[in-house]
Amino acid sequence: MIAPDQLLKLPIESRRFSYTERDTMLYALGVGFGSDPLDSAELRFVYEDRLMAVPTQATTVAWDRSWVQASGIPWPKVVHGEQRIQMMSPLPPAGDIVSSTRVSEVLDKGSGALVRVETRIADARSDAWLCTTTTGFFVRGEGGFSSSPPSRAPRTHLPRRAPDVVDDARTFGNQALLYRLSGDRNPHHASLAAALAGGFPRPVLHGLCTYGFACRSVMKSLCDWDPRRLEAFDARFTAPVFPNDGLRFEMWMEGGNVLLRGSCPERKVTVLEGAVKIKPTLAV
Fold it and tell me: In the chain, N or C terminus with fewer CB closer than 10 Å?
């Protein structure tokens, strides 16, 4: 059984990473940017002329899952369930960074445990804080360690009215193969045999790839493609996406936040729910 006190004290060394403009362009292509090569605003994320980084690239520039091995938890039990980014400043298109990671929370969910891992990313030269990512991992079969009733995650309550914005996108058949080059080489996303062993009928798209597609829709629809305006993005993954799936992102403006739902219309399934905090229009 999982030992929450030990997980919370798990020593995780700070690590230094470097990424290049090529990595930035490859990530953007992996989450759907550049689908219209004649759109000069979107081209800024996939072409080296005045290149910009997609905010959700924060989830890959310091890719490190060493805490799982250090904890002794078997990888097959671990499922990515939640993701949050908080942006302090836009990611540079290339750079050297330092990540500081800790297990921030362990919750008993009954059928399993929810382990939240927080990573602070800073510029390696100036130590300027760039962003913080918080990833929620569901560890199957490791619940029941608390005497209290299982905790319930707060749900995103979407308005009953029609969404203010709807944006459609489509993944390609090789989307998972392209996205995995940004860091996550889990064979469930590439090998049919591995996918079948994991309980999937075919290789699935990474949840973080869907997350990046959602970011693209928000930036396109509400941020005028300006990465400086995306301040925070919380998401919960509710169902898998398969390569070649169409995606629909519905957005509701609620005060200073945007409530978001992602779905696969052809399969009539919701795949992502979340909230995005956007800054007002910025001066040039």
Answer: C
